[in-house]
Amino acid sequence: MIQVTNEQVKNIPLLHVVRHDLQGEKLPTVFFYHGFQSEKELYLHYGYFLAERGFRVFLPEAKFHGERKGTITSSEQAMYFWDTVTANIEEFNDLRQELVAKSLVDEERIGVAGVSMGAITTLGILARFDAVKVAVSLMGSAYYEAFARELVSAAEAEGMTFPYDVEARIAELEPYDLSKHLERLGNRPLLLWHGKKDDVVPFKYSEKLVDTLTLENRAENVEFVTDEHAKHKVSIDGIDRTTAFFQKNL
Fold first, then answer.
1. In the chain, count of helices (H) and strands (E)?
2. Domain named Peptidase S9 prolyl oligopeptidase catalytic: which ranges (predicted)?
3. pLDDT value at residue 25
4. Which of 8, 39, 94, 250 could form a disulfide with 134 if both were Cys (CB 3.0 to 4.6 A apart)?
5. Residues 236-246, buried b or exposed e (16+ Cβ, 10 A)?
6. Is 135 exposed, middle or buried (0-12, 13-18, 19+ CB in 10 A)?
7. Is residue 28 a contact partner of residue 56, using CB atoms and an 8 Å limit?
8. 21-34: per-residue pLDDT in tens?
9. What is the average pLDDT across 13-19?
10. What are the phi and psi torsion angles at 131 (to 5°)?
11. What is the pLDDT of residue 79?
């Protein structure tokens, strides 16, 4: 039986998914991050499939989303997209430390994954923290600066104005931008899944990352899976590959 509980850790709401017979054991653990303008509950199926295979899974609620949305508008969620991403990244380390201290998490077997904004979060966590051993990016971008500029241009074309210095905010993303710190990936296994027709997070970012890693002889443990027809939605095959990748590498 799979047990799902809604918990608060370090004042961060999260779903905790684990097999009932393993709930008290120290387990290999996956932190799974949800997409933009979504919420943790909508990604529970990832937790279920992974928990079935013996993983402990935590699905944190992102800042300005779900239980943490408060009165923020959709436009404000967009304006503060990168604040949400960087909050996810820094909060990951807080969550990890707390859960390791509770002897729930095998510190040597920690994985991170996510979809869209959650995949962007995942790649940023790789850039910041060595504690992650395996990662899966489903429709993400490691190119924070480039993607941020693309999002700003699109927003400004629709008449949006930003209540902060855009250039200063983009500059603050540098420590989280894996594309600028590829050496931080090391030899950690990374699965990149992306649909070629993605019209939200362009496929070109995953393709460029793989090409660059290959050119620099850093792609030995990188698996790149493309879907010729997928737009911004992970296929069942993508979900299955995520589970299999963690089974193999974590």
1. 8, 8
2. 87-249
3. 95
4. 250
5. eebbebbbebb
6. buried
7. yes
8. 999 999 999 999 99
9. 98
10. -65, -25
11. 95
- Identify the burial level of 88 via C-beta atoms within 10 angstroms of its C-beta, where 0-12 means exposed, 13-18 middle and 19 or more buried: buried
64: left (phi over 0), alpha (psi -120 to 50) or beta: left
Per-residue pLDDT, averaged over 177-193, amounts to 97
Q: Going from the N-terminus, what domains does the chain have, and what CATH number goes with each?
A: 2-249 (3.40.50.1820)
Residue 202 three-state SS: coil
pLDDT of residue 19: 98
Burial grade of 61 (CB within 10 A; 0-12, 13-18, 19 or more): buried
β-partners of residue 57 are 17, 30
For residue 136, what are its two tokens?
């899966």
Q: How confident is the model at residue 149 (pLDDT cuts 50, 70, 90)?
A: very high
Quote the pLDDT of residue 161: 92
How far apart CA 181 and CA 184 sit, in angstroms, is: 6
Task: Return d(Cα 28, Cα 166) in angstroms, integer.
Answer: 39
- CA atoms of 9 and 147, how far apart (whole Å): 31
Percent residues over pLDDT 90 in the chain: 100
